[in-house]
Amino acid sequence: MTGRPHTVRAATMSDQGPLSVLLRASYGWMLLDRYNADTVAGVLPELAKPDTGLINSRQYYVATNEQGNLIGAGGWSWGNPVTGDLEHGKAHIRQFATHPTNFGKGVASAILARVRQDAAAVKTLECRSTVSAQGFFARHGFKPCGEVLQRIAPHILMATIRMTRDRSGI
């Protein structure tokens, strides 16, 4: 996607280091708005790990600025990220993040547009949104379906919001 100060492309394995930095910056800044500092400190090491399976699927995208720096990321998978189960006609939004200096500049929206384009066969999109990102997904037609405690690490649960968007709204 061009014509903006950023470009969206498929992530590659060489993006792992910059992705980790991006995920840590994004989640570290954004989560403090709605979660206590102990929760953020506990989940951040896990959330900052890029999902190599998602990268290898070619369904994970990064946004870069004019200098080539990663400023956003996000993708989708057929399999449920928690259980790995496949659900007919349903895909799952995964690991969306925007660098704090680029919030509100259309980066995540451009990545979500790429997801919608590439997931044309999907009947329903679902995500486990952080409480902090719920407004973003709601602005893009996702409806909340309830709070879910997500196990981030063996000893850490984090409140997330299960949200869905039907194909009719995609």
Can you tell me about this structure?
- The protein is an alpha+beta fold.
- The chain is built from five helices and seven strands.
- The protein has helices at residues 16-30, 37-47, 52-56, 107-118, 134-139; strands at residues 6-10, 60-65, 70-77, 90-98, 124-130, 143-153, 156-166.
- Strand 4 (90-98), helix 4 (107-118) and strand 5 (124-130) form a beta-alpha-beta unit.
- Helix 1 packs antiparallel against helix 2 (37-47).
- The longest helix has 15 residues, at 16-30.
- It is globular and about 40 Å long.
- The chain starts with 5 loop residues before the first strand and ends with a strand.
- The model has no long low-confidence stretch (mean pLDDT 91).
Give helix % range: 25-40%
Sheet with the most strands, sense and barrel status: 7 strands, mixed
| Rg, alpha carbons | 15 Å
Low-confidence region ranges: none
Number of strands: 7
Tally of individual helices: 5
Distance between the termini: 18 Å
Strand order of the largest sheet: 1-2-3-4-5-7-6
User: For the residues shown, what is the average pLDDT?
Assistant: 91
- Helix-strand topology string: EHHHEEEHEHEE
Percentage beta strand? 25-35%
Structural class: alpha+beta
**What general outline do the C-alpha atoms trace?**
globular
